[in-house]
Design a protein that fits this description.
heterodimer, A: Rossmann fold, 5 helices, 28% helix, B: mainly alpha, 3 strands, GTP-binding (chain A), ATP-binding (chain A), hydrolase (chain A), GTP binding (chain A)
Protein backbone atom coordinates (compact mmCIF):
# COMPACT_ATOMS: atom_id res chain seq x y z
CA UNK A 1 0.00 0.00 0.00
CA UNK A 2 1.32 3.43 -0.87
CA UNK A 3 1.49 5.93 1.89
CA UNK A 4 0.86 9.63 1.92
CA UNK A 5 3.59 12.17 2.69
CA UNK A 6 4.20 12.91 6.32
CA UNK A 7 2.41 16.17 7.01
CA UNK A 8 -0.02 14.25 9.20
CA UNK A 9 -0.22 14.10 12.99
CA UNK A 10 2.32 12.09 14.98
CA UNK A 11 0.82 9.16 16.86
CA UNK A 12 2.66 7.23 19.54
CA UNK A 13 1.72 3.89 21.02
CA UNK A 14 2.10 2.82 24.63
CA UNK A 15 1.16 -0.67 25.78
CA UNK A 16 -0.31 -1.59 29.12
CA UNK A 17 0.44 -5.21 29.95
CA UNK A 18 0.16 -7.50 32.94
CA UNK A 19 -1.87 -10.41 34.22
CA UNK A 20 -5.61 -10.76 34.03
CA UNK A 21 -7.46 -8.43 36.41
CA UNK A 22 -4.40 -6.45 37.44
CA UNK A 23 -5.94 -3.08 36.55
CA UNK A 24 -5.00 -2.48 32.92
CA UNK A 25 -8.44 -1.21 31.96
CA UNK A 26 -8.58 0.94 35.07
CA UNK A 27 -5.24 2.53 34.26
CA UNK A 28 -6.23 3.34 30.69
CA UNK A 29 -9.56 4.72 31.90
CA UNK A 30 -7.98 6.84 34.65
CA UNK A 31 -6.00 8.95 32.22
CA UNK A 32 -7.81 8.80 28.90
CA UNK A 33 -11.19 8.38 27.36
CA UNK A 34 -11.46 4.62 27.13
CA UNK A 35 -12.97 2.98 24.08
CA UNK A 36 -13.66 -0.59 23.11
CA UNK A 37 -11.96 -2.26 20.19
CA UNK A 38 -12.86 -5.65 18.77
CA UNK A 39 -10.80 -7.89 16.61
CA UNK A 40 -11.54 -11.13 14.86
CA UNK A 41 -8.42 -13.17 15.28
CA UNK A 42 -7.45 -16.40 13.65
CA UNK A 43 -7.01 -19.11 16.25
CA UNK A 44 -3.39 -20.12 16.27
CA UNK A 45 -1.99 -23.51 17.13
CA UNK A 46 -1.24 -22.12 20.53
CA UNK A 47 -4.88 -21.83 21.39
CA UNK A 48 -5.76 -25.34 20.32
CA UNK A 49 -6.60 -27.26 23.44
CA UNK A 50 -7.21 -23.99 25.27
CA UNK A 51 -10.23 -22.85 23.35
CA UNK A 52 -12.78 -25.61 23.28
CA UNK A 53 -13.71 -25.76 19.63
CA UNK A 54 -15.29 -29.22 19.72
CA UNK A 55 -18.45 -29.15 17.73
CA UNK A 56 -17.52 -25.99 15.88
CA UNK A 57 -14.72 -27.39 13.76
CA UNK A 58 -15.33 -24.79 11.07
CA UNK A 59 -14.69 -21.89 13.42
CA UNK A 60 -11.10 -20.76 13.15
CA UNK A 61 -11.39 -17.20 14.37
CA UNK A 62 -12.29 -15.78 17.73
CA UNK A 63 -13.28 -12.35 18.95
CA UNK A 64 -10.81 -10.56 21.19
CA UNK A 65 -11.85 -7.41 23.01
CA UNK A 66 -9.23 -4.84 23.90
CA UNK A 67 -9.25 -1.43 25.47
CA UNK A 68 -7.63 1.58 24.07
CA UNK A 69 -7.42 5.18 25.10
CA UNK A 70 -6.27 8.35 23.44
CA UNK A 71 -4.46 11.29 25.00
CA UNK A 72 -4.11 14.40 22.88
CA UNK A 73 -0.89 16.17 23.87
CA UNK A 74 -1.49 18.93 21.35
CA UNK A 75 -2.95 19.17 17.91
CA UNK A 76 -0.91 16.81 15.80
CA UNK A 77 0.57 14.82 18.67
CA UNK A 78 -1.47 11.96 20.10
CA UNK A 79 -0.57 9.14 22.48
CA UNK A 80 -2.54 5.91 22.20
CA UNK A 81 -2.74 3.48 25.09
CA UNK A 82 -3.49 -0.14 24.35
CA UNK A 83 -4.33 -2.67 27.03
CA UNK A 84 -2.91 -5.98 25.88
CA UNK A 85 -5.24 -8.96 26.15
CA UNK A 86 -4.59 -10.52 29.54
CA UNK A 87 -5.03 -14.16 28.69
CA UNK A 88 -2.00 -15.98 27.41
CA UNK A 89 -3.93 -17.54 24.57
CA UNK A 90 -4.04 -14.13 22.91
CA UNK A 91 -0.28 -13.85 22.72
CA UNK A 92 -0.34 -13.97 18.98
CA UNK A 93 -1.76 -10.45 19.01
CA UNK A 94 1.16 -9.00 20.88
CA UNK A 95 3.52 -8.79 17.95
CA UNK A 96 1.11 -6.58 16.11
CA UNK A 97 0.40 -4.48 19.17
CA UNK A 98 4.00 -3.99 20.16
CA UNK A 99 5.24 -3.16 16.67
CA UNK A 100 6.46 0.41 16.77
CA UNK A 101 5.45 0.87 20.39
CA UNK A 102 7.23 3.59 22.32
CA UNK A 103 7.22 1.43 25.42
CA UNK A 104 5.17 -0.65 27.81
CA UNK A 105 3.85 -0.43 31.33
CA UNK A 106 3.84 -3.83 33.01
CA UNK A 107 1.30 -3.74 35.82
CA UNK A 108 2.02 -6.05 38.70
CA UNK A 109 0.00 -7.27 41.66
CA UNK A 110 2.26 -8.39 44.51
CA UNK A 111 -0.19 -11.11 45.45
CA UNK A 112 0.24 -12.67 42.01
CA UNK A 113 3.64 -11.46 40.96
CA UNK A 114 4.30 -14.39 38.65
CA UNK A 115 1.44 -13.19 36.40
CA UNK A 116 3.65 -10.49 34.96
CA UNK A 117 6.62 -12.76 34.15
CA UNK A 118 5.43 -13.46 30.59
CA UNK A 119 5.03 -9.74 29.83
CA UNK A 120 8.49 -8.94 31.19
CA UNK A 121 10.08 -11.77 29.22
CA UNK A 122 8.33 -10.59 26.09
CA UNK A 123 9.44 -6.96 26.30
CA UNK A 124 12.97 -7.90 27.36
CA UNK A 125 13.30 -10.15 24.32
CA UNK A 126 11.90 -7.57 21.94
CA UNK A 127 13.98 -4.77 23.39
CA UNK A 128 10.88 -2.67 24.04
CA UNK A 129 11.50 -0.15 26.85
CA UNK A 130 9.26 -1.01 29.80
CA UNK A 131 8.65 -0.14 33.42
CA UNK A 132 7.01 -2.16 36.18
CA UNK A 133 4.20 -0.42 38.03
CA UNK A 134 3.04 -2.21 41.15
CA UNK A 135 -0.66 -1.60 41.60
CA UNK A 136 -1.32 -1.24 45.33
CA UNK A 137 -4.58 -3.04 45.83
CA UNK A 138 -6.56 -2.46 48.99
CA UNK A 139 -5.73 -5.18 51.47
CA UNK A 140 -2.52 -6.26 49.75
CA UNK A 141 0.70 -5.94 51.71
CA UNK A 142 2.85 -3.11 50.48
CA UNK A 143 6.24 -4.06 49.17
CA UNK A 144 9.12 -1.77 48.47
CA UNK A 145 9.96 -1.33 44.79
CA UNK A 146 13.42 -2.73 45.40
CA UNK A 147 11.96 -5.95 46.78
CA UNK A 148 9.79 -6.27 43.70
CA UNK A 149 12.81 -5.65 41.50
CA UNK A 150 14.69 -8.49 43.17
CA UNK A 151 11.68 -10.81 43.02
CA UNK A 152 11.27 -10.15 39.30
CA UNK A 153 15.01 -10.26 38.62
CA UNK A 154 14.87 -6.99 36.70
CA UNK A 155 17.80 -5.19 35.14
CA UNK A 156 18.91 -2.25 37.29
CA UNK A 157 17.86 0.34 34.70
CA UNK A 158 14.23 -0.80 34.57
CA UNK A 159 12.17 1.62 36.68
CA UNK A 160 9.89 0.09 39.30
CA UNK A 161 7.28 2.18 41.06
CA UNK A 162 4.22 1.81 43.25
CA UNK A 163 0.94 3.16 41.97
CA UNK A 164 -2.81 3.25 42.42
CA UNK A 165 -4.23 3.01 38.94
CA UNK A 166 -7.62 4.30 40.05
CA UNK A 167 -6.08 7.70 40.65
CA UNK A 168 -5.46 9.92 37.66
CA UNK A 169 -2.46 11.58 39.31
CA UNK A 170 -0.88 8.20 39.90
CA UNK A 171 -1.59 7.04 36.35
CA UNK A 172 0.09 10.22 35.11
CA UNK A 173 3.24 9.50 37.10
CA UNK A 174 3.31 5.97 35.65
CA UNK A 175 3.15 7.22 32.07
CA UNK A 176 5.65 10.03 32.63
CA UNK A 177 8.05 7.49 34.17
CA UNK A 178 7.70 5.28 31.10
CA UNK A 179 8.25 8.04 28.55
CA UNK A 180 11.26 9.34 30.52
CA UNK A 181 12.65 5.81 30.52
CA UNK A 182 12.03 5.48 26.77
CA UNK A 183 13.81 8.82 26.25
CA UNK A 184 16.75 7.67 28.33
CA UNK A 185 16.94 4.40 26.37
CA UNK A 186 16.82 6.37 23.14
CA UNK A 187 19.58 8.79 24.05
CA UNK A 188 21.72 5.97 25.42
CA UNK A 189 21.38 4.13 22.09
CA UNK A 190 22.39 7.24 20.17
CA UNK A 191 25.61 7.66 22.07
CA UNK B 1 -18.00 -34.65 9.40
CA UNK B 2 -15.05 -34.51 7.03
CA UNK B 3 -12.99 -31.37 6.97
CA UNK B 4 -14.21 -27.88 7.73
CA UNK B 5 -17.48 -26.81 6.18
CA UNK B 6 -18.48 -23.24 5.89
CA UNK B 7 -22.21 -23.50 5.60
CA UNK B 8 -25.04 -22.22 7.71
CA UNK B 9 -24.48 -22.35 11.45
CA UNK B 10 -21.25 -24.32 11.12
CA UNK B 11 -19.54 -21.27 9.78
CA UNK B 12 -20.03 -19.56 13.14
CA UNK B 13 -20.76 -15.95 13.91
CA UNK B 14 -17.69 -14.62 12.09
CA UNK B 15 -19.58 -14.66 8.84
CA UNK B 16 -21.74 -11.72 9.74
CA UNK B 17 -19.07 -9.05 10.13
CA UNK B 18 -17.22 -10.25 7.07
CA UNK B 19 -20.42 -10.19 5.02
CA UNK B 20 -19.73 -6.46 4.83
CA UNK B 21 -16.55 -7.18 2.96
CA UNK B 22 -18.16 -9.56 0.51
CA UNK B 23 -16.69 -12.41 2.53
CA UNK B 24 -13.12 -11.29 1.94
CA UNK B 25 -10.74 -11.30 4.87
CA UNK B 26 -7.81 -10.02 2.84
CA UNK B 27 -7.15 -6.70 1.18
CA UNK B 28 -4.44 -4.13 0.63
CA UNK B 29 -5.26 -2.91 4.15
CA UNK B 30 -4.06 -6.12 5.83
CA UNK B 31 -0.93 -4.77 7.40
CA UNK B 32 -2.28 -1.45 8.54
CA UNK B 33 -0.93 -0.50 11.92
CA UNK B 34 -3.49 0.21 14.63
CA UNK B 35 -2.30 3.79 14.82
CA UNK B 36 -1.77 4.38 11.09
CA UNK B 37 -3.50 7.64 10.21
CA UNK B 38 -6.32 7.58 7.71
CA UNK B 39 -7.62 10.68 6.00
CA UNK B 40 -10.31 11.12 3.36
CA UNK B 41 -8.98 12.63 0.16
CA UNK B 42 -12.19 14.57 -0.37
CA UNK B 43 -12.79 12.84 -3.69
CA UNK B 44 -16.55 12.30 -3.83
CA UNK B 45 -17.36 8.60 -3.57
CA UNK B 46 -19.05 7.03 -6.59
CA UNK B 47 -22.81 7.48 -6.52
CA UNK B 48 -23.55 3.83 -7.19
CA UNK B 49 -23.48 1.03 -4.63
CA UNK B 50 -19.76 0.29 -4.95
CA UNK B 51 -19.21 1.49 -1.42
CA UNK B 52 -21.57 0.64 1.41
CA UNK B 53 -22.86 2.69 4.32
CA UNK B 54 -20.03 1.48 6.58
CA UNK B 55 -17.45 2.78 4.14
CA UNK B 56 -19.30 6.08 3.84
CA UNK B 57 -19.16 6.26 7.61
CA UNK B 58 -15.42 5.65 7.53
CA UNK B 59 -14.96 8.45 5.00
CA UNK B 60 -16.93 10.72 7.32
CA UNK B 61 -14.83 9.81 10.38
CA UNK B 62 -11.57 10.14 8.46
CA UNK B 63 -12.42 13.56 7.10
CA UNK B 64 -10.09 15.27 9.55
CA UNK B 65 -7.82 12.26 10.01
CA UNK B 66 -8.29 9.32 12.37
CA UNK B 67 -6.30 6.26 13.38
CA UNK B 68 -7.30 2.75 12.32
CA UNK B 69 -8.10 1.95 15.96
CA UNK B 70 -10.29 5.06 16.27
CA UNK B 71 -12.19 4.11 13.15
CA UNK B 72 -12.71 0.49 14.22
CA UNK B 73 -14.03 1.66 17.57
CA UNK B 74 -16.28 4.32 16.02
CA UNK B 75 -17.91 2.05 13.49
CA UNK B 76 -18.03 -0.75 16.08
CA UNK B 77 -16.74 -3.41 13.74
CA UNK B 78 -13.89 -5.88 14.26
CA UNK B 79 -10.49 -4.65 13.24
CA UNK B 80 -10.10 -7.24 10.49
CA UNK B 81 -13.28 -6.06 8.80
CA UNK B 82 -12.31 -2.41 9.11
CA UNK B 83 -8.91 -3.14 7.57
CA UNK B 84 -10.56 -4.67 4.51
CA UNK B 85 -12.93 -1.71 4.15
CA UNK B 86 -10.09 0.79 4.53
CA UNK B 87 -7.99 -1.14 2.00
CA UNK B 88 -10.83 -0.92 -0.53
CA UNK B 89 -11.29 2.81 0.03
CA UNK B 90 -7.56 3.28 -0.42
CA UNK B 91 -7.57 1.30 -3.66
CA UNK B 92 -10.30 3.59 -4.94
CA UNK B 93 -8.30 6.68 -4.05
CA UNK B 94 -10.85 7.88 -1.52
CA UNK B 95 -8.45 7.91 1.42
CA UNK B 96 -4.76 8.29 2.13
CA UNK B 97 -2.97 6.32 4.83
CA UNK B 98 0.17 7.26 6.69
CA UNK B 99 2.08 4.78 8.85
CA UNK B 100 2.89 5.84 12.42
CA UNK B 101 6.36 6.73 13.58
CA UNK B 102 8.43 3.66 12.81
CA UNK B 103 10.56 1.71 15.24
CA UNK B 104 13.58 3.13 13.56
CA UNK B 105 14.15 5.98 13.50
CA UNK B 106 12.62 6.28 16.93
CA UNK B 107 10.50 9.32 17.71
CA UNK B 108 12.78 12.24 18.25
CA UNK B 109 13.95 13.42 21.62
CA UNK B 110 12.01 16.63 21.08
CA UNK B 111 8.72 14.75 20.60
CA UNK B 112 9.28 12.62 23.69
CA UNK B 113 10.04 15.67 25.82
CA UNK B 114 6.89 17.26 24.51
CA UNK B 115 4.92 14.15 25.51
CA UNK B 116 6.42 14.18 29.00
CA UNK B 117 5.50 17.82 29.50
CA UNK B 118 2.07 17.25 28.03
CA UNK B 119 1.36 14.32 30.34
CA UNK B 120 2.51 16.30 33.37
CA UNK B 121 0.15 19.11 32.39
CA UNK B 122 -2.90 16.83 32.13
Amino acid sequence: MAFAPSDEPVALKILVAGGFGVGKTTLVGAISEIRPLRTEEILSDRSVGVDDIDGVEGKTTTTVAMDFGRITIREGLVVYLFGTPGQERFWFMWDELSYGALGAVVLADTRRLTDCFPSIDYFEQRGTPFIVAVNCFDGADRHEPDDVRVALDLDPEVPVLLCDVRRRASAKVVLVTLVEHALKTLTAAQR
Amino acid sequence: MTGPRWMDEEAGPVVRPFALTGGRARSSGDNLDLIAMVRSTGTPPPGDTTIGPEQRRILEIARSGASVADIASDVDLPLGVVRVLIGDLHDQGLIVVRPPVKVAPQPSERILKEVINGLRAL
